[in-house]
Q: What sequence folds into this?
């Protein structure tokens, strides 16, 4: 939350607006021209295995990685453009590079009610996505320090983290039997080799299972087949894809030593 700490009357070019202050704070976090996060604490070294997997998956999916997203209309009837059209980079950006966005704001009047006055305080809700190997608790502490330390114009800046921050999960290396079994099942039911794509890594359950069963292998699956719409208003599953996946999982379980 930002508090201007001056007056809420008409602006004169003397009192800084809360939005102006927030823009300066964002410059500590993000390169505005690229969207890349600046603090090194939010980044991690990307394992070479994950880079190879992203390259292989990019070869399979091609431009569908970004073209199948529901882009809004842009300038002159075109669509809004992605941050990258390189399939490999798009996959890595969505899994192994941090990103920040504002998901909500309070204190800003609606357009119908807005007048030529400065808001005395404004609150912004931020969402910070982290790579799997970055500890979420440490990142929250760093984010708070970056936002609250030496605020512009001596404004009052308060950072209040929400409960529920979770560290991502990086799957352990597959045992040879599991890799072979999964690949065989993929070929049999889907007609193609197994491919890897990082997704949903902040599900807290996986880290809990890893801590409780450190030597176990994990096969985490979900039905995100053709035209499925997870998390959408009309969420549904592709029945044929679900049947194939169920059969593949059954075969992998049956082959376990």
A:
């Amino acid at each position: 939350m930002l508090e201007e700490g001056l007056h809420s009357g008409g602006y004169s070019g003397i009192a800084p607006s809360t939005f102006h202050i927030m823009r300066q704070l964002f410059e500590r976090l993000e390169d505005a021209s690229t969207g890349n996060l600046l603090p090194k604490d939010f980044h991690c070294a990307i394992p070479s295995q994950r880079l190879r997997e992203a390259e292989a998956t990019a070869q399979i999916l091609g431009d569908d990685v970004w073209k199948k997203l529901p882009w809004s209309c842009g300038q002159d009837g075109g669509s809004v453009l992605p941050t990258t059209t390189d399939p490999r980079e798009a996959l890595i950006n969505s899994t192994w590079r941090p990103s920040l966005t504002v998901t909500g704001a309070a204190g800003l009047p609606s357009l119908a009610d807005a007048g030529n006055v400065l808001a005395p305080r404004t609150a912004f809700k931020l969402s910070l996505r982290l790579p799997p190997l970055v500890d979420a608790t440490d990142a929250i502490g760093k984010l708070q320090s970056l936002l609250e330390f030496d605020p512009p114009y001596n404004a009052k800046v308060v950072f209040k983290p929400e409960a529920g921050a979770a560290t991502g999960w990086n799957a352990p290396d597959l045992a040879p039997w599991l890799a072979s079994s999964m690949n065989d099942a993929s070929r049999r039911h889907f007609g193609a080799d197994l491919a890897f794509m990082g997704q949903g890594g902040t599900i807290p359950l996986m880290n809990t299972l890893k801590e409780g069963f450190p030597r176990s292998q994990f096969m985490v699956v979900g039905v995100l087949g053709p035209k499925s719409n997870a998390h959408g208003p009309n969420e549904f599953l592709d029945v044929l894809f679900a049947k194939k996946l169920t059969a593949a999982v059954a075969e992998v379980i049956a082959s376990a030593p």
